[in-house]
Amino acid sequence: MRTGHRDNLQDPASGVVHLIEYVMVSGILMILLVVMILMVNSTIMEAPTSRLSYVAFTDIGNGISTRIVDLYAIAPSDGSIVTAFDIPDDVAGQDYIVTVGQGSSSLDQDIKVSRNDVEIHIALAGIGASRGVTGNTTGRGVNRISYSSGGY
């Protein structure tokens, strides 16, 4: 219901101006929201995942190093021995690779646990100069360390 005189009515174009203003402001805010979502993903999601992976890979590498050294300590002078162990299937929902091989110098060997941009090197504690240790695995399934006095 309209009240008042015809002179008090607003200009019909002012309604369109308010609508266009609303659409423009909403559009700019939506663009800023999309940009923020893209930026926040790398800051909030990827950085903590990398830190978690670094710590988990260090623990995994230390555990494998300990198992290899323990097997070396009880290795028979004539014969073979095999041990099975399990490591986490994934870290932060992604697979990883464990490689045992040559370290930074010719006498050292190390354990490399890696995935994409995260790579950890753990020294193989003290047996690198006396025994050659090589191999690789992933976290899936049960893993084995084997030793044979005759070599493989």
Radius of gyration equals 31 Å
Strand order of the largest sheet: 4-3-2-5
Q: Residue share in helices?
A: 40-55%
Largest sheet: 4 strands, antiparallel
Secondary structure: number of strands: 6
Number of helices: 1
How confident overall, as mean pLDDT?
83
Task: Give helix and strand order, one letter per element, not per position.
Answer: HEEEEEE
Count of domain modules: 1
What gross morphology would you assign?
Answer: rod-shaped
Strand content bin: 15-25%
Low-confidence segments, ≥5 residues, pLDDT <50? none
Our measurement of the CA-to-CA distance between the termini, rounded to an integer number of angstroms, reads: 97 Å
Structural class: alpha+beta
Explain this structure.
With 152 residues, the protein is an alpha+beta fold. The chain has one domain. Helices cover 40% and strands 23% of the residues. It has one helix and six strands; from the N terminus they run H-E-E-E-E-E-E. The strands form two sheets. A four-stranded antiparallel beta sheet has the order 4-3-2-5. A two-stranded antiparallel ribbon has the order 1-6. Strand 3 and strand 4 form a beta hairpin. The longest helix has 61 residues. The mean pLDDT is 83.
